[in-house]
Amino acid sequence: MHVFQLFINGHSLNSIEAVDTLLKICRENLKGNYQLEIIDIQKDPDKAEEAGIIAIPTLIRMEPTPVNRIIGALNVRSRVLAGLGISSMHK
Amino acid sequence: MVTPRLVRTAPYLHFPNRLRLPMNLQKLETGNASFDHISHGGLPIGRTTLVAGSSGSAKTLFGAQFLALGIQLFDQPGVFVTFEEQVDDIRKHLRSFHWDIDTWEKEGKWIFVDAAPKEEIIIAVGDFDLSAFRIRLERAVMKCKAQRVVIDSIGSIFTQFHEETHTIRRELIQVALTLSRLNATSIITAERLEEYGNITRFGVEEFLTDNVVILRNVLHNEKRRRTIEILKFRGSDHEKGENPFTINPEKAIVIIPLSAMILKHTSSHERVTSGIPALDEMINGGFYKGSINLVSGAIGAGKTLLVANFINGIREKKERCLLMAFEESSEQLYRNASGWGIDFRQLEDEGLLKVICIYPEISSLEDHFINIQETVKNFKPDRIAIDSLSALSRASSDKGFREFIIAFTAYLKHEEITGLFTSNTPLLAGGTSDTEGNISPITDSIILLRYVEMSGEMQRSIAVLKMRGSKHDSSIRKFTITDEGANIGKHFEGISGILTGNPMLIKLE
Question: A69 at the B interface (CB within 8 A)?
Fold first, then answer.
């Protein structure tokens, strides 16, 4: 089971791209076995404060541990998969 | 909300301020009197100042002090952004300077924005921006109505995102714009790799160009020398060049404003006794009040004896004297003085004398200077004796010592304190020392104590080399030390070459 938090800023280009890519990965590589919370820092700045977010977009993989972070628009899918430790074999 | 206090001038050490042209740029008094002095009033209000320095140059402390003094003195809340040190470490650091960070945070006067590196691995895939940071910064500023903001240090964000320096540069311009929109007076710190080279490591100065302050921490001859330089304040005047500073455990950063000192002292015609009537006669009635006087001599030539008499001279008019002894313990001093019939202990009991005996090496010259100032402020002496300057000069580099002497004598003159300093000459007969080379141009009088080797005997001599603004006796006289103290005799007749250390008898016609 993968648990993610994705911090975005409204409808900024990078934010939209990151949401799209991540949803695709979840659908195609994780087959629905995931939890994803998308947090808009405009609406929920406290959460950004708590998590110490600087860059947008920031994706946090809460589980499996260790926790890690990927920043950016996530536009290179293979690198995102590698960063999240998801084997493309899941496909 | 408290409106920021605007100042044009900040008195420091009560040096008279220069005549200034009116400035069109307003400044925010930082509360650090010495910085407000050299910056002619503080930091440019509502603007961002870049504070650059190598690692260990006290950038973080400079920023933290700016916020702390804002809260303490002006009730101006502040936001501290950390990109480098962990918040808890900064809190500890602040507490060590007796800044009550816990209360300030509780009262919402100080807000941390934690942007320090996390333990987690961060990788970057694709384009990003720092909007989250900007939003957090803005919220914090709004929340406490911050008038002061510190971002420490901007170089670390390049290290955190080291593959994306282009993005970071672009984003930092946005941060700078956010800061200027928020109208807070801010400090951004940045690293430098060399003490004399590019302003900052990542070229931050390219977009933070208006106001630049540089902190240096130079190692020279095994001694550290910290300086601060205001490189520019766009549209505003300030002192130029480097000024030494020190980190004081009570007052944090204290600057010694060399460049802001001017030669304008009231010179008194009033005379004060040297404690030896015959010496008073040689210098035409005593030292001038508020003058700086140097006694130069080899070991055992009678320097401390002159100091003891100078101190004893306070009896007459119930003056007060501060003695800074860097060579002997107070026990030794008391014993020696009583050997010459001078009772230091009684003077001390009467509250006329204060003796401070310390090793010069225990702190830097800048710290000594600040400690002496503190003591002067509390004790309010009319006279100061320093025995010896040569010992004190060990605590610093040559340059640092020269600066200390300039700052210190200017300070004494302004306070109208009469000073008597001693200095050791390395040779028994004749000669001068480096210390003297540094100090003699700014002294008002110089008294030489020299050994004279004659007829298989070491005799002592005394001569007045210079006495500014007054006639003086130009003869070289015999000087003897007896149970009653100093005794000045007749001048050496028919002998020449005493000062060069080669006395020769010349035949008198």
Answer: yes
Residue type for position B326: F
In the beta sheet, which residues pair with residue B420?
Answer: B293, B385
Instruction: Quote the CA–CA distance of B25 and B72 in Å, as a whole number.
Output: 25
B171 close to B179: Cβ distance less than 8 angstroms? no
The answer to whether residues A42 and B95 touch, using CB atoms and an 8 Å cutoff, is no
A53 and B136 within 8 Å at the Cβ level: the answer is: yes
Query: Would you say residue A32 lies in a domain?
Result: yes
Residue ranges and CATH numbers for the domains of chain B are 46-258 (3.40.50.300), 271-501 (3.40.50.300)
| A56, HSE (Cβ side, Cα atoms, 13 Å) | 27
Q: Residues of A with CB below 8 A from B124's CB?
A: 70-72
Q: How many structural domains are present in chain A? A: 1
Question: Which helix (DSSP H) or strand (DSSP E) does residue B485 occupy?
Answer: strand B485-491
- Give residue-wise pLDDT tens across range A44-80: 888 888 888 888 999 998 888 888 888 888 888 788 8
**SS3 of residue B503 by DSSP:** coil
Between the alpha carbon of residue B23 and those of residues B26, B27, B263, B339, the distances in Å are 7, 9, 24, 61
**B305-355 residue pLDDT tens:** 999 999 999 988 889 999 999 988 888 889 988 888 889 999 999 999 999
The residue to which tokens 């025995």 are assigned: B387
Contact B135 A48 (CB under 8 A): yes
Own/partner contacts of B230-233, CB < 8 Å, gap of 24 or more, are B230/B38, B230/B39, B231/B199, B233/B25, B233/B39, B233/B44, B233/B49
Residues of B assigned a catalytic role: 84, 327
B53 forms beta bridges with B191, B215
Q: What is the mean pLDDT of chain B?
A: 83
Alpha-carbon span B123 to B72, nearest angstrom: 41
Instruction: Note down the domain range covering A17.
Output: 2-37+62-90
Q: Report the predicted TM-score, pTM, of the whole model to 2 decimal places.
A: 0.74
Q: For an interface test with A, which of B111, B119, B128 has the most A Cβ atoms less than 10 Å from its Cβ?
A: B128
User: Residue A54 domain-assigned?
Assistant: no
The per-residue pLDDT for range B364-413, each reduced to its tens digit, is 888 888 888 889 989 999 999 998 888 888 877 777 788 888 888 888 88
Apex A86 CA angle, A82 and A87, nearest 5: 90
Please give the pLDDT value at position B100.
Answer: 92
